[in-house]
Design goal:
The chain has 233 residues and is mainly β. It has one domain. It has 1 helix and 17 strands. The chain has a 17-stranded mixed beta sheet that branches. Strand 5 (82-86) and strand 6 form a beta hairpin. The longest helix is centred in the N-terminal third of the chain and has 11 residues, at 2-12. It is globular and about 50 Å long. It starts with a helix and ends with a strand.
């Protein structure tokens, strides 16, 4: 019976559009599934990536040789995340009805540094560590419910881009580039706003490079219950 299940799991890890590999599916307690997927580069001018995660740990970075390279770890109560790509539109999401679980749920995603990217993240609860500094960003939209979020934008952006963050309950820390101009419109909740290395300007926060640098990063941040930390030094 166990041999039969392992064989079925091996067949289930194939796909027509995406390069996929995974460990055999195991139904014992406490052992997570691990699965890797990649999406090949194509001739699209830019990519819109929509990430929809119910609860867990989300990690994003640059440095992928393909368009996207992902490693997923999830418990036996979850179905594997669904990855769809078609002509510049990439979607990574949990299957409908599987937005919670008692075991681990972690996504480690790497994107290509050279492909221009619009990134939309809908994240219900958990923790996120987004190292976006090396990516060719055009726009980033983040919607988070409950948890802790770290966003690293340090580096030298290739073009201007904007980032919007709507948070519910939890802390958010954003590390800002030094040599790009930064202007931030921030409205915080109960936890307040901490803006290191920035100064107030017309109801917003700006860094010393704003108005002089070749590129500009525009932030629009709305926090609920929790603290917002902007680190610009």
């Amino acid at each position: 019976m166990l041999t039969s299940r392992l064989g079925l799991a091996s067949v289930a890890c194939t796909t027509l559009l995406l390069s996929t590999s995974c460990e055999p599916e195991w139904h014992g307690g406490g052992i997570p599934h691990r699965e890797t997927r990649s999406v090949a580069l194509d001739r699209s001018e830019f990519v819109r990536a929509n990430l929809r995660m119910g609860a867990g740990e989300l990690r994003i970075r640059g440095g992928a040789s393909e368009l996207m390279e992902g490693e997923f770890s999830y418990d036996r109560m979850r179905m594997h995340p669904e990855v769809h790509y078609n002509s510049g539109l990439l979607t990574v999401e949990e299957p409908s009805g599987f937005h919670s679980g008692r075991g681990p749920n972690r996504w480690d995603l790497a994107f290509n540094n050279e492909k221009p990217l619009d990134l939309e993240i809908n994240f219900g609860a958990g923790s996120g560590r987004l190292n976006l500094a090396s990516l060719s960003l055009r726009r980033v939209d983040i919607h988070m419910g409950v948890g802790h979020l770290e966003i690293d934008l340090r580096g030298e952006p290739k073009e201007d881009y904007s980032l919007s963050l709507n948070g519910g309950i939890g802390d958010a820390t954003v590390y800002l580039p030094e040599h790009a101009g930064v202007v931030a419109d921030v409205k915080g909740g109960i936890g307040g706003i901490d803006a290191r290395g920035l100064s107030g300007w017309r109801g917003r926060y700006v860094n010393a490079a704003y108005g002089h640098a070749k590129t500009t990063v525009r932030l629009d941040i709305r926090g609920g219950i929790g603290a917002i930390h902007l680190i610009g030094d």
